[in-house]
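Reminder to self: tokens first, then the designed residues, so the page reads top to bottom the way the pipeline ran.
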């Protein structure tokens, strides 16, 4: 027979998402417990509503409540020890941030081919790790944030090219028995606690060997993370899903150097340079409504990209610069904006100057 805790859990999963979130927040707070006020802030419902839900959990024997300094403090109770999501060895206190802090709230709209979005989502839904490759500023990071927002899940992200260290990702001690959970540890714990989450590994091609090693066992069938400093091993228990997305900046030159063992753990989806309709839509939603002007900007971007591919320019604009254009254009004329966004940034030699001036002459009135 299934135990009572498992039955309650199954029932709450299907019928009462708020109650489930209340219980998770309590469990994540571990031994220290959580105050009623904090709980109602995290969940976003009134204290009255929280009190009513706590009553249900109390009745089921899942929590206990103690009054400390006039405040109700709620702690977990009742589940067998090995079911606790943040089980800790050797008495170490873990500090983790609430996953609510990692939810994506406001976000600009991702505009892209439906196929790209569908493929990316499908890879994640079937439980595989996704690697988004594509040019700089083409929307890789935005797509990950957009999926996390649509699925209403927290998104834990770190960038491999910013000198990130193992302790940033796994965690570090702040004193002899207090351990601050790093980004990956938090993501794994969130999933273990029953909340689906996304882990985004930005610019994975710049990953250092130590971090790559650490990720191997998390990304394959073992689904486990070793927290070396505390000697703990966290294993994804299926309570919540952990969707893993990596991004890799692969420019026109196709430079891509990633350890093969790590690469093989991903399904790769390339985001191609978008077609004109998508580019027009991006300009339109960013405030460039006139067709003639859209034509100028798209023409400039494509001509500069072509010049780069012929070796005439050292760098070229992508969607990121198109959005920058749209923003500056609210304050400057077409010509001034073109100079700021496409000339000052990309012209670094006499040859480049001639090339870009020629392109501008044929397009900008
Ligand atoms: N498909 C898109 N739809 C809407 N805006 C986009 C799109 N692609 C890029 N942008 C704009 O360009 C900016 C840069 O996009 P993003 O940071 O996602 O690019 P990236 O591919 O991750 O680049 P990098 O490789 O440099 O990290 C976004 O903030 C957004 O303003
Ligand atoms: Mg990015």
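Designed residues (365 positions):
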């Amino acid at each position: 027979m299934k135990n009572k805790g498992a039955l309650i859990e199954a029932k709450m999963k299907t019928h009462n998402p708020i109650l489930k979130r209340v219980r998770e927040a309590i469990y994540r707070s571990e031994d220290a417990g959580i105050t009623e006020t904090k709980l109602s802030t995290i969940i976003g419902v009134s204290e009255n509503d929280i009190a009513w839900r706590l009553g249900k959990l109390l009745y089921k024997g899942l929590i206990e409540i103690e009054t400390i300094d006039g405040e109700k403090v709620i702690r977990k109770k009742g589940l067998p020890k090995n079911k606790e999501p943040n089980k800790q060895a050797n008495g170490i206190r873990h500090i983790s941030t609430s996953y609510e802090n990692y939810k994506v709230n406001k976000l600009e709209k991702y505009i892209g081919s439906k196929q790209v979005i569908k493929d990316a989502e499908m890879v994640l839904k079937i439980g595989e790790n996704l690697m988004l490759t594509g040019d700089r500023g083409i929307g890789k990071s935005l797509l990950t944030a957009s999926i996390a927002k649509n699925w209403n899940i927290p998104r834990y992200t770190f960038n491999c090219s910013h000198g990130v260290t193992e302790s940033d990702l796994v965690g570090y001690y702040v004193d002899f028995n207090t351990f601050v959970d790093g980004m990956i540890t938090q993501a794994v714990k969130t999933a273990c606690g029953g909340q689906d989450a996304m882990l985004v590994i930005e610019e994975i091609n710049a990953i250092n060997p130590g971090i790559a090693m650490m990720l191997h066992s998390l990304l394959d069938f073992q689904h486990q993370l070793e927290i070396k400093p505390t000697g703990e091993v966290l294993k994804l228990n299926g309570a919540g899903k952990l969707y893993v997305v990596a991004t890799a900046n692969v420019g026109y030159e196709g430079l891509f150097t990633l350890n093969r063992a790590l690469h093989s753990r991903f399904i790769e989806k390339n985001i191609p340079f978008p077609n004109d309709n998508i580019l027009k839509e991006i300009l339109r939603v960013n405030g460039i409504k006139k067709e003639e002007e859209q034509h100028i900007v798209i023409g400039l971007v494509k001509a500069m990209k072509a010049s780069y591919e012929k070796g005439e320019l050292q760098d070229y604009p992508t969607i990121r610069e198109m959005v920058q254009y749209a923003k500056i254009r609210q304050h400057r004329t077409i010509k001034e904006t073109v100079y700021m966004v496409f000339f000052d940034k990309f012209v670094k030699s006499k040859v480049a100057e001639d090339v870009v001036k020629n392109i501008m002459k044929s397009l900008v009135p």
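Residues 140-141, 202, 247 surround magnesium ion (ligand 2) (CB under 6 Å).
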